[in-house]
Amino acid sequence: MITGVNHVTLVVTDLPRALKFYADLLGMVVRAQGPRAAYLESGTLWLCLEHGVPTPRSDDSHIALSCAPADFDRLYARLTGCPQWKINRSEGASLYVLDPDGHKLELHLGNLASRLAHYRANPPDGMQIF
């Protein structure tokens, strides 16, 4: 049985630039850094940034990041200069941005319980809620 996400690895073209984005803008803590990779931590998330050539996807695959409700507006303001890849149409406040290498990120207020409550109140066609 899966118990959670162990870690996420993102390939980046410029490690110092990626560290600036994830540490300085998003507030993640750098735990280790070498010439080809860095490891950051934020809450229970362990993020590895690995130097290479990323291949951005054209679909809706993305990483959604949570923050405390009190921090959302501050982080939103920090990220508004980043390219946006989607307009929020889901329940809860969200901002959809690209990191410097084109990885799709979502800053989201909400959780699975709030999403399911929204679907119970506004059932999409064909969606079963268990």
Tell me what you see in this structure:
The chain has 2 domains: 55 residues, 2,3-Dihydroxybiphenyl 1,2-Dioxygenase, domain 1 (Roll), CATH 3.10.180.10; 67 residues, 2,3-Dihydroxybiphenyl 1,2-Dioxygenase, domain 1, CATH 3.10.180. Strands 1-4-3-2 form a 4-stranded mixed sheet, with helices on one face. With 130 residues, the protein is an alpha/beta fold. It contains 3 helices and 8 strands. The mean pLDDT is 93.
Q: Average pLDDT, to the nearest integer?
A: 93
The second-level CATH architecture of the largest domain is: Roll
Task: Report the CATH superfamily of the largest domain.
Answer: 2,3-Dihydroxybiphenyl 1,2-Dioxygenase, domain 1
Total count of strands: 8
In what range is the share of β-strand residues? 25-35%
At CATH level 3, the topology of the largest domain is 2,3-Dihydroxybiphenyl 1,2-Dioxygenase, domain 1
Number of helices: 3
Radius of gyration, taken over Cα atoms and rounded to an integer in Å: 16 Å
Largest sheet: 4 strands, mixed
State the CATH class of the largest domain: Alpha Beta
Class from secondary-structure proportions: alpha/beta
Q: Which ranges are low-confidence, i.e. pLDDT below 50, for 5 or more consecutive residues?
A: none
Helix content: 10-25%
Give the gist of this structure.
By secondary structure, the chain is an alpha/beta fold. The protein has helices at residues 15-25, 69-79, 112-121, and strands at residues 8-12, 29-33, 37-42, 45-51, 63-66, 84-86, 94-98, 104-108.
List the helices and strands and how they pair.
Layout: E1 8-12, H1 15-25, E2 29-33, E3 37-42, E4 45-51, E5 63-66, H2 69-79, E6 84-86, E7 94-98, E8 104-108, H3 112-121
Parallel strand pairs: 1-4, 5-8
Antiparallel strand pairs: 2-3, 3-4, 6-7, 7-8
